[in-house]
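Model: Ready when you are.
Researcher: Fold this.
Model:
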Amino acid sequence: MSWGGAFKCTRSEQSEKKQQMSQNENSTTMQSAGNHRSNTCCFCWCCCCSYPWREDDDRFRRTSGDIKLETLQKCEASAKPTAEEVHSWAQSFDKLMKTPAGRNVFREFLRTEYSEENMLFWLSCEDLKNEANKSVIEDKARMIYEDYISILSPKEVSLDSRVREVINKKMAEPTTHTFEDAQLQIYTLMHRDSYPRFLNSSVYKSLLQRSSSTSSES
């Protein structure tokens, strides 16, 4: 065999080997992709779907969010207010806030102004005051802080820097009185800012009209 023939044969063998290696690589890639795809969702194929811990983490966050949302949407249990009660709410803010029915109606109004978090914070503080278990107090205080005090929360209430500083110090060892200053500030804010508008709102006026009609009929 001539050197030319040997060279041609070698080139031919190398070409065949490269082609075979390329086919093997493609086959391996497709097999790997198939295995990878089996762990993904049915709508997409990306790295974020291939890790089970991400799915568990997302599921946990969704569950936590649902629980918090359910808690937020739950209103206080209250009987239907009497005509006398509804009229008394216009006499003072204290009378409105002392009845569950009044708080629920006022909360409905605050929702229309996108300031429902003020009432939710106040109610959470009231709930904290009634707690006796130390570990539960710490847990509830932490949740209140994360939901209404943290600047990262979408439900952050408006507090001045002095009150925030006091809360930050007290959070080292939270008690039932940790948020007292903040609760008073938000109560005052609702009284001065939201309460006058509530009395002139359609929410209160329609309730006042219905209660007056019911009272006259009876």
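Researcher: Now this one.
Model:
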Amino acid sequence: MGCTFEDGLCGYIQGLSPDEDDFDWIRTKGETSSDSTGPRFDHTTGSGYYMYIEADGPEDGKKAILKSHPQRATSGEGVCLTWYYHMYGPDVDKFNVYLQQDDQNMPIFKRQGTQGNQWMYEQWTVSSTTSWAVVFEAYKGLGNAGDIAIDDVIVTDGACSLQRTCDFEVGFCSWTQDSMDDFDWTIGNNGSMLEGTGPPSDHTMGTDLGMFAYVNTAKPPRAYGEVAQLYSPVYPAAVSECLTFWFHLYGGAIGELEVHIYDTVSKASTSIWKETNPCK
């Protein structure tokens, strides 16, 4: 199912309108026909082909689906599914990727709004005991400057390389809860927050549809000093690396947010950053 779209669709099929989608993806090269949106070239060679949705034509809010044929169940460590996507323009809407198993779509990736005029990389390890397919779903936004494109969908044997970024759009990625702490982190959006606390939107999408990780201290009520800890995957030793994150602390009874580096060999935990009740 790997495809660079240089020689066609590689067996990928459009959604079966009107049951699944409203319009089709288009295979093209060079710039798209809408102004101020879409890529100027493909990702593979810079002069080849890619797939995209043309925002000048379909009705606002309509969607297009492109999906692979069913693939055999994976074995061992599974397979690594990678793809490049391009979302650029003031009217870009939603782009979702699903893993289809037993006629059920499990979301593995989603973005909304412009992501900059560049090709972006994403990956997902597929470990499935049943046949599966990948589904690319793109929506037409409120305007004509909203083209969305994909290119270089590749599948390789074995799990993907260690995931170093997480935006919490489809869960905790490879992050894990501490089984020995007092309560857990939660995935939510603006609708998950109580009045007077929490962010109005996530940072990735900037809308109330985007997801983030947060701690709920109200349901059930948490006692002063209780802790919720979330662990990243274990990363190999490095001379120097940069850790970046976005945080939001807002409310009348905020406690403390702290970041630690945990050495899995020495078992030592070192605090590297802390913010305490900035509302006081």
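Researcher: Key takeaway?
Model: The chain has two domains: 13-157, 162-280.
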